[in-house]
Amino acid sequence: MPAALMPKEEVLDRLTRVFREYGYDGASIARLSAATGLGKASLYHYFKGGKQEMAGAVLAHVGSKFSALVIAPLKQHVDPERRLRTMTYGLNEFYDQGGASCTLDLFGFGSAGELFQPQLKGSIHRFRNALAEVIRAAGFDHNKAETRAEDAIVTIQGALVLGRATGETSVFQRVLKDLPERLLRPA
Amino acid sequence: MPAALMPKEEVLDRLTRVFREYGYDGASIARLSAATGLGKASLYHYFKGGKQEMAGAVLAHVGSKFSALVIAPLKQHVDPERRLRTMTYGLNEFYDQGGASCTLDLFGFGSAGELFQPQLKGSIHRFRNALAEVIRAAGFDHNKAETRAEDAIVTIQGALVLGRATGETSVFQRVLKDLPERLLRPA
DNA sequence: GTCTATAAGCAGATAGAC
DNA sequence: GTCTATCTGCTTATAGAC
Hints:
Chain A is mostly helical. Chain A is built from 9 helices and no strands. The interface between A and B is large, with 38 and 38 residues.
């Protein structure tokens, strides 16, 4: 395979930015082309399945970044509070300090919803399980841990929605700061 | 003004359903036409400003339904716990038991975001103020009330996002059930 | 692997008959 | 007030040269 002008990693980063800003339907090939600097035909050379395959690749790319930044810290061999604190740093970076949208949100409706719901469901499942295990490690029972883990995801998603609607990132910042204590405080 | 074949109220309800299911960019005129049973030209007769005006009218329509179902209960002359409980019934209906998306979410990005952010911001502001006043009436100070009100909105939005991504409404139902107690419990 | 040029179809929007 | 027919431009996607 001959070298491309731009590493696929970089291409995916740029595609991701467009999908996250405009959503699936709003991310036109023209915009994706401009953002990558590649002509439309070059994009179709990379992704023979067209826009749908681009979105799928973006989803996988985003998923692997999320694993590295957010899931991995939850599996470290340190105390629960420390794991959750490290995770919040990862979340802060992953969501660009609260200024980025989540693909869980943007790919969950309309044409994208029909195509990608199974993947979204899987991502949520993995995140909730990793969170719940940390909370169990802190001494909470299975049900309590599952519920708190779910609440954490709800809170993160909600804060991102609010931040986007208001144009402010302060809600996300506050929520992130309080998250570890909230997940571990006595019932 | 001669009578129309369908009351504008009914037209707005149907437009709302499409915008809430597909988002702004995904809601094509063809779909809006099919959902209302009106030809494209008839839609443009109602809304001379085109799709942008349709979305604006939908936003206003949704806003007034939200006022009646959710804000009004918060201003009743009964105890705070009762006001919040009644509000959750309104939320349940407004969001179709958790199966409907929120325009705060769907109109917050892409082309819609640029057009409607001010209105979204206003809606959030009104909801948060109404919630905070009830929480203050229960004896909490201004800051605590504001924070809890904001958390409530975050939680509702997040639960809707999660519900859409997983195709389940159980998260929304649980969150709604716990909301009054959570907003009023001792600090 | 990248490009220019172009195809085919759908988008939003309008004209004008009834 | 509603319709059919139509316009223009943008959409996704492809062909084929370099």
